[in-house]
Amino acid sequence: DAGVTQSPTHLIKTRGQQVTLRCSPKSGHDTVSWYQQALGQGPQFIFQYYEEEERQRGNFPDRFSGHQFPNYSSELNVNALLLGDSALYLCASSPGLAKEFFGPGTRLTVL
Amino acid sequence: SQQGEEDPQALSIQEGENATMNCSYKTSINNLQWYRQNSGRGLVHLILIRSNEREKHSGRLRVTLDTSKKSSSLLITASRAADTASYFCATDLKLTFGEGTQLTVNP
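Predict the joint structure of the above. Result:
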């Protein structure tokens, strides 16, 4: 059974561009959360998806949006990229509100 | 507002010693979880303790929870070089992890 997978592993974009990151949850998990982790910081909660709807949201601007598909996989979209969006983006899945399992992350660099 | 805040920021010990990290949080919780993160990689779930539990063990890990003080501690006994990582606590409210405790275990 594969754990949480994320793609791509690394990504380099320029300011103003848009990016889409993808996450496949662990088998049997229906809830997906996204986190942003800047260098040297702890992960910051972006939002959580359940049954294809955003259930909770952290303190992030509307430039950050997401989607969950019927197979529970999820996408994170970031529009109008800023230099400060450079970070490790972590996806985590769980069966409901139980403990989360994290993916390896996508390293986004904005130049 | 920050839910999990770890202390100390950094801890360096010798192999075989015990390592204790603390976590404080601000509001009521259903559970508290500890995670480990090796440099630049995904977080690995270590242990979950529910609000009605006071102590929990998993191998060399011991976690305590004091809901009256809104604090938790993670004890790693007989540490190994492979335990070198950042350790984070997080509550079930999924707001913000703290900056973590960077543990270095010297061989």
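Residues 66 and 72 of chain B are 6 Å apart (CA to CA).
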